[in-house]
Amino acid sequence: MFADSGVAGTVGRALLLVGIVGSLFGAIAAISSARTREAAVTKLISRFAILNAVAAVGAFASMEYAMITRDFSLAYVQKVGSTATPALYNFAAVWSALEGSLLMWVLILAGYTVAVSFWLRKKMDDVLTNWAMGVMFIVSLFFFLLSFGPANPFVVGAAGVVDGPGPNPLLQNHLLVMFHPPLLYLGYVGMTVPFAFAIAALVTGR
Q1: CA 129 → CA 7, 40, 119, distances in Å?
Q2: Distance (Å, whole) CA 140 – CA 13
Q3: Is residue 100 a contact partner of residue 175, using CB atoms and an 8 Å limit?
Q4: What global pTM score does this model have?
Q5: Judging by beta carbons within 10 Å of its beta carbon (0-12, 13-18, 19+), is residue 39 exposed, middle or buried?
Q6: For 174, which of 32, 50, 60, 136 is 20 to 30 Å away at the CA?
Q7: pLDDT per residue rounded down to tens, the chain (206 residues)
Q8: Which residue, 162, 194, 170, 173, is CA-closest to 84?
Q9: What are residue 74's DSSP bridge partners?
Q10: Mapping DSSP to helix (H, G, I), strand (E, B) and coil, where does residue 156 land?
Q11: CA 48 to CA 69: how far, in whole Å?
């Protein structure tokens, strides 16, 4: 499943694991901070958010590298990549199917998580903020697990494949169509933020 993959596949999988660990311990730190009010634990929340963001950016960049360099050792590149497709469309091919779309979801969610932690850095000792960050880390953990498990874009494909069908034809129709999914995901994934604070308000009674 993971044998004989290139650098992009190896690095990508490793970074997804880092994201899983960061999300898990970030959630533990946030919830522990809400309960114990320990300053040392509270400081860890932002650090785990940064770790998550670095892991997500690195994993997504690894997938982009594999796509642009046409690394057909990966099943996902075999599925949506092509030697005949211009580099720009190969770049967009990353989000043209399930596995890559979920990886982009992970990336955007990690971005929102670190943005919220930076925005509320002076209120990180607040119980409501702690619980909200905990919820965001739990949601991040779910999507990191999906990307590492059943929807892993870094799985090694069949041997001997040297070309693929290319990305979804709809993404090759117009530049605005090509970048429609990322813009759409900014809205979809962004709803995690009010959801996290709504759950935090229910938990804290505020």
Answers
A1: 38, 16, 11
A2: 16
A3: no
A4: 0.91
A5: exposed
A6: 60
A7: 444 567 889 999 999 999 999 999 999 999 999 988 888 888 999 999 999 999 999 999 999 999 999 999 999 999 998 888 888 888 888 998 999 999 999 999 999 999 999 998 888 889 999 999 999 999 999 999 999 999 999 999 888 888 888 787 777 776 777 788 899 999 999 999 999 999 999 999 87
A8: 162
A9: 156
A10: strand
A11: 31
Residue with tokens 């779309």: 101
Nearest to 96 by CA among 178, 11, 199, 16: 178
DSSP states along 70-98: T-TTBHHHHHH--SSS-HHHHHHGGGSSH
Q: What is the number of residues in the chain?
A: 206
Q: If you ran DSSP here, which 8-state letter would residue 167 be given?
A: S
* Tokens linked to 144: 């990191």
Q: Which amino acid is at 147?
A: S
Please report where in the chains the tokens 């059943």 appear, as a residue.
Answer: 150
Distance CA 61, CA 98 (A): 17
Answer for the pair 149, 98: CB distance below 8 angstroms, yes or no: no
- Asked whether the beta carbons of 99 and 151 are under 8 A apart, the reply is yes
